[in-house]
Amino acid sequence: MYLEYKKKIRVLREMLERMLVDEGEYPDKAYINHLLDDMDTRFAIFSYENVQADTKLDVHKMNKDLYIIRKDLEILYEIITELSSRMYKELESYVNGYLLTLESIADEADARAREDLESTSLGAKTIYFTDKVQTMSFADGCATIPIGDVVCKAGSKLYTTIQGTGFTEHQAVFDIGGKQLLPYSVGRDMMRAGGTVKKVSYTYSLPNNAVYGSAFRIANSNIKVDRSHKYEAYGGADQMELTTPTENRLVKFYNNASYEAGDATQYSFYLTNATHIRFDFSNAPTKRNFYEDDVRGLLRDKMYHYEFTMPKGASFRIDMDGILYATKEPLSVKEDSIYVTQHTKAKDFLINEYEPAEDITFHNVSVKIMDVEEGAFHIESIAIKEIYDTEVASE
After folding, report:
1. What is the DSSP secondary structure assignment for residue 390, as one 8-state letter?
2. pLDDT of the residue at 254
3. Among the four 122, 244, 267, 336, which has the fewest Cβ within 10 Å?
4. Mind listing the pLDDT tens digit for each residue in 217-234?
5. Does the pTM of the predicted model rise above 0.85?
6. Cα–Cα distance for residue pair 369/173, rounded to 1 Å
7. In the structure, what pLDDT confidence band is assigned to residue 36 with cuts at 50, 70 and 90?
């Protein structure tokens, strides 16, 4: 039951954070914990609902339910795999050999797990330290804790956290590669690791007579699939995805054209090869994942995701200088081919291939705590969270 609880909490936390990010809200830890407290983890994440026989099939809801069922099955599979791999003799040998240090090891492992779970799940990994790593030094009321070398992916973002007693986060400053970085906060203090990631883009269109179901292969002979590379696919060039309580479809986009919402309508699209975008709303959107209506200085090689919900009868215009895609498609790489793994309404696609770059190493990373006295404070954990994502949510 404890394994199931931990894994369900992890999955539910990730789903809630993704939902909040998609709605343009910051995934606040306290708010997510409040939502989790109201959820019963004794049962499956999926909740069955009776549907009348004459009800119209809701494909979007069905895909969402299948996704949640898959998460439940993944949790069960992980538990079975984990339990089956714990051989009695190996466990007995481990307990007998490390009984005296078991409690401290468990405490540190629990602290690291808590750091990973309670910080945003968008991070690729957490580089974790405790006060036992190296001896700190003191000078003029300042404590310096050497962390050592930190290795991360090129192009990633780094966020820092520090926890303890006898000081506040405002007194801490990280030194990473000669740059000063404050602990992560709502202000989203972060730094980029630098380096470049090589990107190659391809286009692909389904044949007019193509027959496809929930998955199909991207049969583009120009793409030499490499399993060590990362692939993304965006579908529906010059289109937006439109979702109302009764339908979900792709609509043609025309720059500076006027669009009116006949019902409460959510619009979503991905923008690339652009330097600016400007929205002109007759009424303010009820939800959005961006703040500014007029954004300049976009980077042409980035993909920007915009999503907003218009009230019934409201209209809007969009002026931009890039290319729109309506959807981001889930992909799977098998053998030498790329597959779109879910049904899509798109007919043409942009495929981005990212080649792994050499890792970036920061030497002699440290954190300083100002205005403290030796022996008057205690450090529980220090963590550097690495986030690697080629897509920008919005700006």
Report:
1. S
2. 96
3. 336
4. 888 888 888 888 888 999
5. no
6. 7
7. low
> In sequence order, which residues have a C-beta less than 8 Å from that of residue 157 and are 6 or more positions away?
190, 191, 192, 193, 386, 387, 388
135 within 8 A of 366, measured Cβ to Cβ: no
Tokens coding 130: 């405790």
C-alpha to C-alpha distance for 385 and 152, rounded to whole angstroms: 10
Residue 319: name the closest of 286, 289, 274 by CA: 274
For the record, the structure tokens of 255 come out as 């720059």
CA-derived radius of gyration, the chain:
24
Q: What is the CATH class of 119-195+358-392?
A: mainly beta
CATH 2.60.120 domain locations along the chain: 119-195+358-392
- pLDDT, tens digit, 9 for 90 and up, residues 282-338: 999 999 988 889 999 998 888 899 999 999 999 999 999 999 999 999 888 887 888
Beta strands in 65-197 (DSSP E): 125-129, 137-139, 142-152, 157-165, 172-176, 179-181, 191-192
- C-alpha 85: how far from chain center: 30
Strand partners, 340: 216, 331
Residue 354 to residue 152: CA distance in whole angstroms: 16
